[in-house]
Every structure is written in structure tokens, then in C-alpha cells.
Amino acid sequence: MSSDVPDAPDVPADNVEAVRIEDEMEQSYIDYAMSVIVGRALPDARDGLKPVQRRILYAMDEMGVSSRSGHRKSSSIVGDTMGNYHPHGDSAIYDALARMAQDFSLRYPLVDGQGNFGSVDGDPPAAMRYTEARMAPIAEELMADIDKDTVDFEGNYDDRLTEPAVLPAAVPNLLVNGASGIAVGMSTNIPPHNLGEVIDAAIHVIDDPDCSVSELIDTPDSEGHIKGPDFPTGANIVNREGLWNAYTEGRGRLRVRAEMDTEYDETGSDRIVITELPYQENKARRIERIAEDVQEDKIEGIRDIRDESDRNGVRVVIECKRGANADVVKNQLLEHHLENTFSVISLALIDDQPRVLNLKQLLEAFVDHRREVVRRRSQFELDEAEDRAHILEGRLTALDNVENVVEIVRNSEDRDAAMAGLRESYDLSADQAEHIVRMQLGSLTSMEAGEIESEYQDVQAEIQWLETVLSDESKLLGVIKDELREIREEYADERRTRIIEDAGSVTREDLIAEEEVVVAVSEEDYVKRMALSEFDPQHRGGKGIIGSRPKEGDRVSTVFTASTHDYLLCFTNQGQVYRLKVFELPEMGRTARGTSAVNVIDLDDGEEITAVVNTDDVDEGYLAMATRNGYVKRTAVSAFENVHSGGIRALTLEPADSLVDVEVTTGDGDLLLGTRRGMTIRFAETDARPMGRSARGVNGIDLEGDDRVAGLVAAEADDDRHLLTVTKHGYGKRTPLSEYRRQSRYGKGLIDIKTDERNGPVCSIDAVSAGEDLAIMSESGQIMRTHVDEVSTVGRNTKGVVVMRLADDDRVAGVDVVPDANENVDANENVDANENVDANENVDADRANSE
Fold first, then answer.
1. Residue 571: strand, helix, or coil
2. Is 130 in the active site?
3. CB neighbourhood size of 76 (10 A)
4. Where are the beta strands (DSSP E) in 282-369?
5. For residues 184 and 238, what is the distance between their CA atoms, to the nearest angstrom?
6. Cross-strand partners of 562
7. At 327, phi and psi to the nearest 5?
8. Cα(441)–Cα(196) distance, rounded to whole angstroms?
9. Arch. (CATH architecture) of 48-169
10. 259-337 — its CATH code?
């Protein structure tokens, strides 16, 4: 393909420098990074502004768009800023302008906007051609005295104009309005603060330059000035530790929590009203996500959500379902949506270098800047005052010699000659002579002379004052403090954000009264809890009262007592262990069947809870386990510290074997195994060495025939308790533990109780003390509570007495001990005439049969 363009001639380069490409890329990247850091993203520690914000305010000042002027189209302000000072996109400038006008972004907005400048719902501002703006009064305090040589000016991007490198900033804007920005490899996030508190802290730094950061922070232990950030949207800060780190180290994490109130009505449906949201929270998006979690059942108890917010403030109404606890719903909302983390990074520019600053350093940067501004302003005003005094001195000289001065001027050929004549006659300067020549005749009156004399005296006083300010540091600092107090008086307001103590999460457990309960589990895995107080103590031999109504074909398999605040380890017949919170069990009436246990514990088919251990009892020591076929195993409690929701293996079982009981041991006591045929063996705990969770264990008792283990008891060497044995047919006895001598492990044991046709096989064995209660439940759902003392104390190899009177086809399902019973209620007063057999029927006629 031919071309008409001639080849360019070879021109030798004047200077070619060879550089390594990695060095060039490194230096170019550093230059770019510093350009972003200094020229765009980070605020100056002196006036707290980024370049784009500073240029917008300066452009408005140059345009005369002050707080006392009319509003000007935002597009006009953006155009002037972009054309003269900020050579970047108009959208970036307008975004910065809009943010300075948002009362939900800045604690003290710097721009007075008119029109739609966005909302807390994330709505963007209207187009710049539709909105108008002017400087807010407080922004003029940032610009004050800029025309008095208070700050340095530098050329704009094309050196056509000049712009201030920093504003005079009579307001500590960096702390007051905060700042956020992302640079290259670093970012800043400074929260806004209350103006009055920041000014008080700045004055404290002026008065005591050697003060510590802790003296500036207002905490319960010290009376400082700054309580914490003061967000324009209010809300609550809940952790003081994060505040301390943010102020002392320049970095910290704050937990900001929404403000909520609870409104109660007579219908039983409470409502939660959100009145303040965490800073920089998108209200509409947050409401949407709450609604999504409600639909997905991640948050329970909410019926409806309404946004009733208006220009007067935020109001989001959350309707609770009937019967739902508003405090529990609040906790769910806080956990998932209404508590945010605000990460403080106090990074700002000091001498064009990014530095992380603590609270005192931030205040010192402002105070040092104000010291320089006031000094330069005072020097500027002193120069002007001296110039004016010089002119006034010339006028006074002319007034003192008015006739001769008039004569010299009248006889001069021109103005220059008159000026020369005056200078020669009265030793005047050129400026004085020119001013006299230009004086009007009216200024020669006696009244004008008096005014000039008075003005001269005022100017001299001003000169003297300014010289004192410039020569005396304390006077200069006094000027700074007086001006800060004036600004405080003019603009300071009350705090919006509260600092509250973190009382912790309000959980469902916190809202449930701590009480003793009876937990019943059926063979088909129905479970429920009932208050133990519903079952008054009765005399031994009663029938009890209804505690559960199992469905046809089902029967109660396990019963145990616990506190609603207990965390339990539930061991099953298949050797698994689960962790259970008692308050999570459904509370139901005595006649209720219960709910399926799979809603609480994920049990397999045929799996039943056979032993329960309170986690309060397992801080240290061992868990001793006994199986149906006579195996015993000890495992350190530390092996059960992390029990996940799906359970973990407690021990390995042989085919046809099952776990029957678990006890907490100290490691140096004795273990007692009781069998269904009434045999009991006692041996040293150390005979069964500790093993891991996957082990099977060792033989504990030599069982005869079809005999099987019924229960396990842990005892100490000098234990003064009794062994309580209860049989399936409702008979039982107490025997001192001392009557069961220690034997070697894997023996046949001693006869504990006779298990003839009347008694039936042994159901359970427990170690009991005087003053305790028993909770006995039958397979049909009858529950009886009786004092341990009601059960007769007899020797081994006896039949025992009636403990609970059962129907012919009913059997004891389980027995649990209620420790330290304090209820000394007369049993005769607690017998239900319809459901309980009169205790007088339980005469100890059968005691003769117990021997």
C-alpha cells in the first residue's frame, strides 16, 4: 500500500539516558501514589479539607456565594471550580459539593443546599442543574481572613490563577466533620465530633501543652472534654475500649448501635421503633435485608415492617408477632443488622506527609496552624495600621500648619511641585505629601480635625496591641482562645451520639426466669419441660400426679431435673453425647405430650437419652460411663469441651450393648455399679484407667445370666451419703454407702436389694443426702415428688418399701435427685384428692417385709 506521507528525517537525540525499567516503574508509581495521597484522597490536618473541598469553597468565595447571598446553581459552582482550580471530572466535584451539603454526612454541613442533595436511603442527589447552593455560615469561618496574608497561595493547574494551599480555618474542621478517603496503599476514616467538645479540648491543649491524651478524653474515670465521636445521625457507641485505642493510637474499632424504643399496646403485639441509625447506614437497604431475613426465618418474631420516616427524622416501625418478646427481637436485629463497626484511622497530611495521629496530635496540628494564621494576620493588620498612622500623622501636620500648607499648594505650578514643596517644608514622605495634596477643603474644618485626631489615637492603640500580640506568645494564644470561644458560642450544639455501657447481648436465656424444671423424654423422642414447683412433695407411697400424656404405644423413658439456665451433656444409649440448653426445651403443661426431640437434639432412630450431666459440674476431673453389659470407662472432661450440634462420640459400644449411666468423678474416689437383679459392686476408680473417647472401656462387673447394669454411682472413700435403690414396681430403700465394701473390679458384687416378683428389677441407683427430694416418673406419665427422708433406711439384701404406688400395668421410668430441697411443706396439705392416694394408705406394714 502506497502512502503520500514522506518519511520523517532522522533527528539525533540531544540526550538519551539509559534507566532500568523496574527503577522507572517504581519511581513513576511512587509519584502517582503521592499525587493521589496529597492531591486527592487525604485531608490536610490543618483545615481538615481535601483539595476538591477546599477548591469548591474558595471558588464560592471568589464568586461571592456567601451565606448572606442568594443561592447559586450548583452547575455554576462546579463549572467555576473545574475551570479554574480542579481539573477533574464535574461528577467528582459535584459529589463533593453534595456531600458537604448533607446533614446526615457532615456533623456541621459546610454548604447550604437547596434542592435534592440525596438521602439516608441512598438516593443520589438530583442533577447539578436542578440544585442550588451557597456557603453555610460555619464555612465562612474556614475562609475568614484569607485576604490578610494568613496562608500561602500557589499557582493553579495552569498558573493562570492562584489558590490557597490551605484555608485559615478558625474551626477545627478535621475532628468536627471528620474525613474519609482511600489513597494508594492507605486510607483514612476520621469520625465527626461535637464542636463544643473539640474546642474545649483545643483550649486545654493551648493551656497545657504537656497534657496527655487521656486528659482530653472524657471517661468514667477521668473528666476530659471529648466523650467520643458525635455522628450526625445520632445512635449509640457501646465500647469504650475502641474509643481509647482510637484516641491514643490513632486506630480503633467502634461498635455503633441503632437507637430503638419499644411501644407496648393492649393487644399483646409490641412494636419496636427505630429512631436513629448507625452512621453511613443505608436505611432502605437495611430495611430490605431485615425483611429478607424475616422471610428466611433467620429472624423470628416479626410480623410487619414499616418505614414512617419523614423530614423530621427516622422512624422505622417493626411490628412483633403476638406473644413474641420484643427484647429478644431487638437482640436479633442488633446481632444481624442494627449494630455496625466503625473503623477509625486518623490518617492526615502533616507537611504533605501522611501520618497516623492520636487525638492530641490532631489538636496540636490545628492549634499550630491557628498560631501561624493569627501571627500572619496580626502582622498584616499591624502593617496596615502603621501605614494608616503614617498618613494620619501627615494630615495632622497639615492641619497644624493649614495656612502655610494652603499657600504652598496654591503657589505651586502643578501637583508634583506642591508635593515637593510640602516635603521640603515639613519633612513629609511622598505618600503623606500626596495624601495632603488630594485632601478636600472640607477636611480642614475643626470637626474633621477632631475626627482625624481620634482616629489617630485608635490606630496607635491598635498598633500597640498588635505589637504586644506578636511579641508575647501568651497574648497570641489568648486571641486564639477568645476566637474559639466565640465560635463555640455561635455554632456549638448538644451531642447527638450517646456513649453507653455494653450490657452484652440480650439473649432468650436472659429473659427466662431461672427455676428448677422436670424434663421428660419418651421412647418415641417426645420431650418437654415443666416447672418442678408444679409438683408438691408428697408422702412416700403416693400415686403422684399427671406429668405427661404419651400417645398410645409410647411411654416415658427418661426423666431428669435441671435449672432452666443449665447447659447439659446428654448421653444416649448409642454412646453419643449432645449439648443441650435447658431453656430451649419447650415448656408445656402437665397433660401435654411434648414436642419431637429432633427440634432440639438430632437423635437417630432408636436413640434415647439415658444419662444427663450438668456442665457446671465438669470443670475438671473425669466422666465415668457404664454400659448395659457391664463395661466401665473413664475419660477426662476436657475431651468434651467442644460438643457440636450434631453430637460427638462418647465411647465405642459392642453390638447389643448400650450406655446406661454417666457420673462426674474426681479421679481418686470409688465407683458403684448396680444391676437389674439387685447386685452392686464397689471398686476404686483408679482400677479403670482413663481412656479416650473412642475407647470401649474395661469390665466393671461380672454379670450372671441375663443380668444387666442398671446404674452407676460415684462415691468418696468416707462418703456419708446413702445409696438409694428404686425398682421398676415402685419400691425402694436407702442404705449407707459404708455398707458397700470396696472390692476388686470385675467381681460379682454384693446383694443390694431383693428383686422378687413384688419389687421387679432395679430401675435406678443414686447417692442421696438428707434434705434432698426425689422426682419419680412412671412410664405412663405420672410424676411424684417426695423427700428422700421419706424412704426408709435399711440394710443390704432387703426388699425396701413402697416409694411410688403404680397401676398394675405401669412401671417406673426414671428417678432423679433434686439437691438441697428447701420446701418443708406438710405432705398432708399437698395431696390432690383426685389424683393422689392418701398418704395414710402408705403405712409401713410392708416394712416388715423389707427385712
1. strand
2. yes
3. 17
4. 302-307, 316-320, 339-345, 347-350, 353-356
5. 32
6. 517
7. -65, -35
8. 54
9. Alpha-Beta Complex (3.90)
10. 3.30.1360.40
* Catalytic, out of 130, 426, 567, 740: 130
Cβ pair 171, 110 in contact under 8 A: no
Sequence letter at residue 625? M
pLDDT of residue 15: 77
Written as nine digits, the cell of 380 is 498584616
Distance between CA atoms of 363 and 350, rounded to whole angstroms?
A: 12
Residue 634 corresponds to which cell in the numbers above?
Answer: 473413664
Residue 839 pLDDT class (50, 70, 90 cuts): very low
Is residue 158 classed as helix, strand or coil in its secondary structure? coil
At a CB cut-off of 8 Å and minimum separation 6, what does 562 contact?
516, 517, 519, 568, 582, 612, 614
- The cell for 810 is 405401669
When the candidates are 2.120.10.90, 3.60.20.10, 1.10.10.10, 3.20.20.70, the CATH number that belongs to 513-843 is: 2.120.10.90
| Predicted confidence (pLDDT) per residue in 68-112, tens digit | 999 999 999 999 999 999 998 999 999 999 999 999 999 999 999
Q: Which three cell numbers stand for residue 777?
A: 416418673
Whole-angstrom Cα distance, residue 588 to residue 594?
A: 7
Highest mean pLDDT among 274-283, 390-399, 432-441: 274-283
The cell numbers describing 720, all together, are 456419708
Grid cell in block for residue 260: 430503638
pLDDT, mean over the chain: 87
Which amino acid makes up residue 355? R
Q: Strand pairing of 353-356 and 347-350?
A: antiparallel
Q: Tell me, what's the pLDDT at 6?
A: 64
- The answer to whether the beta carbons of residues 577 and 642 sit under 8 Å apart is no
Determine how β-strand 187-190 pairs with β-strand 609-614. Answer: unpaired
C-alpha cell of residue 189 = 476514616
Task: Output the 3-class SS for 163-211.
Answer: EECCCCCCCCHHHHHCEEEECCCCEEEECCCCHHHHHHHHHHHHHCCCC
d(CA 734, CA 722): 6
Chain centroid to Cα 238, Å, comes to: 6
CB 653 within 8 A of CB 627: yes
> What's the CA dihedral at 493, 497, 499, 502 to 10 degrees?
170
AA letter at 508: R
Collapsing DSSP to helix, strand or coil, 748 comes out as coil
For the chain, domain boundaries? 48-169, 259-337, 367-491, 513-843
pLDDT-derived band of residue 469, with 50, 70 and 90 as boundaries? very high
What is the band of 59 on the pLDDT scale with cuts at 50, 70, 90? very high
- Report the half-sphere exposure of 786 (CA within 13 A, side-chain side): 29
DSSP state of 646: T
Q: Which residue do the cell numbers 450526625 mark?
A: 232
**CA 75 – CA 83 distance, rounded (Å):** 12
- The CATH number that domain 367-491 falls under is 1.10.268.10
For 715, phi then psi, to 5°, come to -135, 155
Calculate the CA 647 to chain-centre distance: 31
DSSP H or E stretch at residue 723? strand 722-727
